[in-house]
Amino acid sequence: MPHCRITLLGATLLAASVLAHAAPQYVEVGTQLPRFHLLKEGSHRYLRYLRSADGNLALDIWQRDIHFDGKQMQLRQRWDAVGKAPSVKRLESTFETGTFRPLTHVRITEKNGRKTVEGFAFAPDKISGMADLRDNSQKNLTVDTKEPAFNFEADMEFIQALPLADGYEAQVVFYHAGGATAPARYTFRVTGSEAIAGPAGPVDCWIVTTDYNQPGSVSKFWYAKGTQLMVRQESALPDGRTLVKTLLD
């Protein structure tokens, strides 16, 4: 009988280990995201800074605003940079409500007296420049996709809509519109949980990691378990510094 108990215990532990290391779940563009309802209208601000052995260097304040209009969700982002060369970058993106399927993406950067406009339309088989957007520097862009891609510049909110839990892994096709890297699959893993400081006190968080397809590098996210709002992100840089994004409000 003791031997049977040991065998049963071993089988249980093995099953738990298999579940904890299940294959990544591929998230297909157009499918309903199980926790999309956690995305709420409103604004959140983050401080971005570089951390090193010598201290901290503030980069910018990053504001993200969500608005719903019928069957569409709109995400607006704004970076206000600090330092000797202040700049402003604004993004305005639209998505299908419930699925996060990207529709349009506009990026406007103002720096050193120069304004750059970039606009993109997402389709199942390609991402192309918006021909009717005034002063669009990317109007001639066409990037064919083997499989539909999500908008990489909305990854924070996208991950918020996934069913985060112990052992969960998601495989997602992302594309940074206009970037040098082609659309590709990326894996995000829930590697544990931890309580960290938040704007109003300690927050119990899921820890999510990815290497962005660069083996050896690690980006780490903390998502609040209740709202799945991102509270913090830390990404190791090649020069030894760490890029930190932390929730202000």
- The low-pLDDT segments are 1-20
User: What structural category do the secondary elements indicate?
Assistant: mainly beta
* Biggest beta sheet summary: 16 strands, mixed
Strand content: over 45%
Provide mean pLDDT, rounded: 92
Spatial gap, N to C terminus: 58 Å
Shape descriptor:
globular
Compute the CA-based radius of gyration.
Answer: 20 Å
| Integer tally of domains | 1
Helix content: 10-25%
Total count of strands: 16
Order of helices and strands: HEEEEEEEEEEHEEEEEE
Number of helical regions: 2
Signal peptide: 1-22
Protein name: DUF3108 domain-containing protein
Keywords: Signal
How would the blueprint of this fold be written?
Elements: H1 2-20, E1 25-26, E2 42-52, E3 55-69, E4 72-81, E5 87-96, E6 102-111, E7 114-122, E8 126-129, E9 142-144, E10 150-151, H2 155-160, E11 169-175, E12 184-198, E13 201-210, E14 219-224, E15 230-236, E16 242-247
Parallel strand pairs: 1-11, 10-11
Antiparallel strand pairs: 2-3, 2-16, 3-4, 4-5, 5-6, 6-7, 7-8, 8-9, 11-12, 12-13, 13-14, 14-15, 15-16
Features:
249 residues, mainly beta, 16-stranded mixed beta sheet, 2 helices, DUF3108 domain-containing protein, signal, DUF3108
Describe the structure.
With 249 residues, this protein is mainly β. The chain has one domain. It has a 16-stranded mixed sheet that branches. Strand 12 and strand 13 form a beta hairpin. The longest helix has 19 residues. The termini are far apart. The N terminus is likely disordered. InterPro entries: DUF3108.
